[in-house]
């Protein structure tokens, strides 16, 4: 009796997860089409200089490795150089404070 209930529950769970994944894929595809058609996709002349990525954690940790991979991927796709500025300390507070103090010109991003 319990085996039958578990099989039904497993089938229902699989069907529910499949439905959620398919719904998410449809939403993501719609969003991507809207962004590609948008005039705000990429302002002309931006970026005209190197970007700075502030990483509020150390170089050797997981965030440092993710920041390095992201910077390499963006540089490979766009040709824009990204300087990684690691500011560890205070559970990320030091890096976030540095990010908030940076000018709001779009050339400084926070990897968190």
From TrEMBL:
<protein>
    <submittedName>
        <fullName>Tripartite tricarboxylate transporter substrate binding protein</fullName>
    </submittedName>
</protein>
<dbReference type="InterPro" id="IPR042100">
    <property type="entry name" value="Bug_dom1"/>
</dbReference>
<keyword id="KW-0732">Signal</keyword>
<feature type="signal peptide">
    <location>
        <begin position="1"/>
        <end position="23"/>
    </location>
</feature>
